[in-house]
Amino acid sequence: MKPENRRAEVNYAFNIERTMNGFKHYSACFFDLYGTLVDIHTREDTPKLWKTMADWYNAHGGNYSYTELRQAYRDNCQREEKALQERQRMKGLCVTEAEIDIGNVFASLFQGRNCSAGDAEVREAAILFRKTSLTHLRLYRHARELLKAVRDSGSRVVLLSNAQSLFTRWELEMLGIDNCFDAIYLSSEWGVKKPDPLFYSTALQDQALTPEECLMTGNDWHCDIEGSRDVGMDQYYIHTHLSPKEDSGCLHLEEATYVQDRQSLLLWQKRMLQGRKGDGGRSSVSTAEKEGK
Questions:
Q1: Are residues 146 and 235 in the same domain?
Q2: How many helices (H) and strands (E) does the chain have?
Q3: pTM of the entire structure?
Q4: How many domains does the chain have?
Q5: Which of 63, 123, 138, 248 is deepest in the core (most CB within 10 A)?
Q6: φ/ψ (deg, to 5) at 216
């Protein structure tokens, strides 16, 4: 096991009883997924991935070389994003952070070779892509127990994640936590992602909740903490090895309602900022983590 994964486990295995003291009075507790409840690593830049996908598309009439497929995928992602933004603009929606549905991209790769594909083929392509690019996927220690404890306390448990539905709903099943949530909101299903206030407000309205009665837990200061704070929710910041390195420069721990292991975070932030001055920004989170700080 890599040192950073050991650190992430220890970092997330906070005391459930102590945590619940902060959660009990909330009507609903919202959770981020990747980096908060789930440890994940993917590689979408390997020839193996694109050769595997080219073979699959070719078996379904696609006729792609792996380099052609890789470029077509990237081009179609950009086109889909522009098309989504235009559709939202035409509807008069004020969206600052749009999120495409990757299923449309996989479907377009069939259309680019004049092939027809139904929902089953698109889902199969998406899951093959995810399986092949995935190098690591597991729950953080005590994640399932935490979700159960929150639900047992009488609070609703809501997942609010920047994620692709075709990837994430399959992974929730694989991890055995798909039934741990009272509601699941994935950005690709709504066309908007955190920290856009529209994503938060959409989930709150759908659940008939006010921001004041809700808590957002996440590992990304900008998306999870600032985003939820901007709509009036309380926040719980959890730092893991998947937290953005940029967090070291923007953490204002006193502004979060709750912070896991505040003293360790202050030390990590100090080391990161000192590292930026001394080595031109080459320091990484794992440096502090390997030292057990």
A1: yes
A2: 14, 8
A3: 0.84
A4: 2
A5: 248
A6: -110, 125
Per-residue pLDDT in tens (0 to 9) along the chain, 293 residues: 333 444 444 344 445 555 555 565 799 999 999 999 999 999 999 999 999 999 999 999 989 999 999 999 999 999 999 999 999 999 999 899 999 999 999 999 999 888 888 999 999 999 999 999 999 999 988 889 889 888 988 899 999 999 999 999 999 999 999 999 999 999 999 999 999 999 999 999 999 999 999 999 999 999 999 999 999 999 998 888 888 887 766 667 778 888 776 555 555 556 555 554 444 433 333 222 322 32
Confirm if 275 and 287 have CB atoms less than 8 A apart: yes
Distance CA 97, CA 167 (A): 20
155 and 244: one domain? yes
Domain boundary among 110, 134, 158: 134
Quote the DSSP letter at residue 182. S
Half-sphere exposure of 286 (CA within 13 A, CB side): 7
- Matching residue, tokens 């030390």: 267
CA distances from 22 to 152, 192, 286, 291 (A): 14, 29, 29, 29
Domain containing 93 equals 47-134
Pairing of strands 134-139, 38-42: antiparallel
DSSP SS3 for 235: strand
Contacts of 119 (CB under 8 A, 6+ apart): none
Phi, psi of 10 (to 5 degrees): -60, -40
In a 13 Å sphere around the CA of 233, the CA atoms on its Cβ side amount to 32
